């Protein structure tokens, strides 16, 4: 079973500004209500430490592997339960420069595994709104940084 959650936002800030916020892991707790903690190296293949807090859900910690870190276009990691194939999630952020001062954010996750069918309702109820809220928070931060620069 597979499930995809994909959200988008247009951010009135340069792609480099948005990228710098997405990769400044230490600052996530200051602005991000969904990914409340993240640490690790931005080297492909490295392991990250991530804490998420879905709206209406409980905090979860996991250690995904960084698959893609291609500045300033894509950040992607793969997380899973201790046994791969039960419930895996490939989280992604893709950035596209629409103009010199405007960026499209595509933020989502591709879920797979035998437990996805059981979790589908929770993903729609908790994860999708959390992604959308994070997008709004990222937009607000990037636009405020760009306006003050």
Automatic annotation (TrEMBL):
Transmembrane segments: none annotated. This is Polyketide cyclase / dehydrase and lipid transport. CDD domains: SRPBCC_4. Pfam families: Polyketide_cyc2. It comes from the Bacteria.
